[in-house]
Request: fold
Amino acid sequence: MIDLNPACQRVIDVLAGVTDVQLTRSSPCTEYTLGDLIDHVDQVSRLFTALPLQDTDDLVSVATSPDAAHLDPGWRDSVAQDVRALGKAWDDPAAWRGSGNVPGSDLSDEMWGKITLTELVVHGWDIGKATGQPFDLPEPTLRACLDHVAEFVPKAPVPALWGPPVDVASDATLIDQIVAITGRHP
Reply:
């Protein structure tokens, strides 16, 4: 079991530093503007909160194309609430056991938890990078994410989700190694 709460809190902190004017900026996640990416993080948070809660209605209803137009005027608070709920849902050790909670998927719940961590870390970094904010996390959180992406991304079931890996120095920070594996330039 991985504690997702440090990554959740850091995402919430970075979101608090985003201005509405910045929402139209490009992001390191090249298919999304910053606003679209924030909407994606919100959707992922709700989706991956529904997973350990076994809320199949939310698993089906959340998936829409990310678009900054979905963000309401109080988006910072509502997205923060969804990200906080995500961390809480994965606090239960039972959330990490079993499989089959995602219709059409044969991935284990533990793998979904690791994918959730990767979404938080990589997209949190994307938001921080796009807005000039640091994205610092505790070493155990970064290590868990790096271990996952190093194994998962090269053989991901949907390879198009990631860009080609970027070379970094052998002594690069853990966060730089993570984002490089996912096709971002640290």
In short: The mean pLDDT is 91.
